Amino acid sequence: MNSLFASDALLANGWARDVLLEWDERGIFTRVEVRQSRGSAPAAAGPVLPGMANVHSHAFQRAMAGLAEFRGHPTDDFWTWREEMYRLVRLLEPEDVEAIARHLYVEMLEHGYTSVGEFHYIHNDREGKPYADRAEMSNRIIAAAGEAGIALTLMPVLYAHGGFGHKPLSPAQRRFGGNPQFVIELARELRDFHLPHPSLRIGVAPHSVRAVDALMLTELVDTATRMDAGMPIHMHLSEQTGEVVECASTHGATPFEWVSDLVDVDERWCFIHSTHLTQLEMRKLLGTGAAVGLCPVTEANLGDGIFEFEPWFEARAPWCIGGDSHVSVSPFEELRALEYSQRLRKRVRNVAASEEFPDVAANLWRDAALGGARVLAQPAGTMEPGRRADFVVLDGSSADLESLAAPSILGVAMFGGNSQRVCDVFMGGAQVVAQGRHPRKQEAQDGYRAALRRLRSKP
User: Fold this and answer.
1) Is residue 419's pLDDT more than 90?
2) Contact indicator for 273, 240 with CB cutoff of 8 Å
3) CATH no. for residue 109?
4) Annotated catalytic residue 359
5) How many domains, in total, are found in the chain?
6) Where on the phi/psi map is residue 64: left (φ > 0), alpha (ψ -120 to 50), or beta?
7) In the prediction, which pLDDT does 79 show?
8) Is the pLDDT of residue 82 over 90?
9) Does the pLDDT at position 438 exceed 80?
10) What pTM was estimated for this model as a whole?
């Protein structure tokens, strides 16, 4: 039966009791009603949450998680970490990318993510030359998502320069190289071949202010808008202080000022990181309807800094989370890191809360799920009729959760230790994780191990 009875479910307006969920053969919710009897519907094993979106993924980087933790320079930062990433980039073959992504997406599902935004920039072969099929690498990502059963928004990246002032691409960066025409033609080819599809969407991504110039940015956005007026547009913004300083030196403007002077920023946009926005920039950004995509664990790992989240939360503006380099594959860890970073910044507790909305864990999960689905153009993010039936069931049997109400269960899951609290995961009404395990976990893990053996045996 396409139904589930939840004693507790996190809906758009908060926690609800005795919720009957029903969906049709397309995996779309047809009924979400509270204070209902169970009837013949199976019962959820614990509280039910909307599926979470991971809006910013570089899937291949899962293969180097934790491998850049040796001091290589007195001021180790993003720029020195990037060299380790480039070493991996030089080695990857298409089959490696697919195996790594498939394993990662299985891990994501087991931890409560039901959709992912792939910020995809490895377009060319190891020599930096185009593949005979320009969609070779993109199709590998799409195949991996399909095999895992996760919803995917694929965003081909425009990466044209190695730095400000039209700096040439480095040898490793040549794998990323392209121009607006290449990105648009790739997006159009992927759209025409794969769409319509119930869980695949296509967007575009100008990489950053250092990797594109003004003409390229405007051409990409204008052409993408003509192709699809609602197409997601994602971009790295103000991630590192060095980038902000160099942008000001080169363009006489901050990264956000430079972008917003060239193109119309609206609700299609998601600015990834946005760590070093000024207060004036934040006020301007709040007025555009654009979202910020925060990657708290990666931002901490790289020493990038802390986004000032409180005013964004208070404004009820759209925001979401991303796994980025995948040093974490858990949305619970990302949201915990976000909240804790704000507590350290402000030296107070329970920042993502207010008198009207006092439940920190519920606020974080609900807002990130809804904002993430929006920026990925996925019809999910909350449980209501017309939305795709993507949802997560927590394991109510854990000893730590004994005799707790649903809000406290989510609080313990997010802030109490490191136990895996996800029991079941449904994507489009289909169960893709049962009792904490994905049915293709072993197969995905075996493929991942084989890829790592190949990569780590190379000089």
Assistant:
1) no
2) no
3) 3.20.20.140
4) no
5) 1
6) alpha
7) 60
8) no
9) yes
10) 0.96
Closest CA to 218 of 266, 163, 263, 161: 263
Which domain range does residue 103 map to? 50-375
pLDDT at 277: 96
For residue 75, what pLDDT band results from cuts at 50, 70 and 90? low
Burial class (CB in 10 A: 0-12, 13-18, 19+), 222: middle
Which of 103, 123, 273, 276 is flagged as catalytic?
273
Could you tell me if 145 and 101 are in contact, meaning their C-beta atoms sit under 8 angstroms apart?
yes
Q: How many CB atoms lie within 10 A of CB 87?
A: 15
Catalytic residue among 8, 228, 324, 424: 324
Q: What's the residue count for the chain?
A: 459
Apex CA 99: angle with CA 208 and CA 107, to 5°? 80
- Per-residue confidence band for 74, with pLDDT thresholds at 50, 70 and 90: low
Percentage helix, strand, coil, to 5, in the chain?
40, 20, 40
Residue 324 falls in the annotated catalytic set: yes
Q: CB–CB of 410/265 below 8 Å?
A: no
For residue 433, what are the CA distances in angstroms to 45, 357, 443? 13, 31, 14
Question: Tell me, what amino acid is at 325?
Answer: S
Does some domain include residue 278? Answer: yes
Which amino acid would we find at residue 254?
A: T
